[in-house]
Specification:
321 residues; alpha/beta; Rossmann fold; binds 2-keto-D-gluconic acid
Amino acid sequence: MSRPLVYVAVQQFGEDDARARTLLEDAGFEVRHNPFGRRLVSGEMAEVLQGAAAVLAGSEPYDARLLAALPTLRCISRCGVGVDAIDMEAARRLGIAVYTTPDEVLEPMAQMTVAMILALARHLPLYLSEARSGQWRKHTGVLLSEWTIGLVGFGRIGQAVARALQAFGPRLLIADPLADPAALPPRIEARSLASLLAEADLVSLHVARPAAEGVLIGRQELAAMRPGSRLVNTARGYLVDEAALYDALQSGHLSAAALDVFATEPYTGPLAKLPQVLCTPHVGSLTRASRSAMELRCVRHVVEHFSARHEEKATWAGRAS
Ligand code: 8YV
């Protein structure tokens, strides 16, 4: 009887903290790691994941066809919170459990977002680029208390960002059709998306909207933003029309942007060349402490999934239909 195989698809695993790796090995699983040093791509996944009982998943795509082609797969444990790359309906139908690490991403995401907002408030991307070309120029910044900041999406991450921002005293608006305006925390005002875009000096995205629903901030929404305002996106790249954003920045209608996520990653497009744009490689949740906590939680979900269900030996060989 072979040991159940856990495939570690996430790229960084156990780099700063060996506890998750040890926990996985001590639990008796056979462990195989993504050897490519990059995100898995859909064309290779059916082969690479064949025989796996569980996968420690990053943001690579798990569509219905792939899931159906992996008959031994019982559990997808995301090292992260978004399930937009997983066909949840197919997973449910096929009896594949999906787990995420929602608590562990809150603090790093909030801190990354605040870091990006502060960077734009004080023109840090611009200084970086000007210093590199030998320019010594001063640009007057703002205190966050001078700004109206609009948070699009007020789930747990949006709320964590709002709490962190309140230390700096900006006026805070939120747009979220699921948020009850009567139940909002103090000093936070609800708006429609259109009103928020028209009022905010900076708009930050925190929505868990699937790619299939299309772009949220397109040419029209960018045009509706205040002249000179800014966009921060730490959620998902497909939420923003990147070509329209580039045009809005080039024309000066938007004065700056900070982007951690892109429609296609790794991103090599023109936004990265603009001096007023801060680009980071999808690292919003990546801090030493939070990564360790995410990895541990991610592994615990797998260990608990299999031990709680007292899996019959026979089921390792194939999913019961
Ligand atoms: C990455 C994220 O998935 O939580 C999410 O949904 O976007 C990120 O945390 C994670 O870093 C990949 O392991």
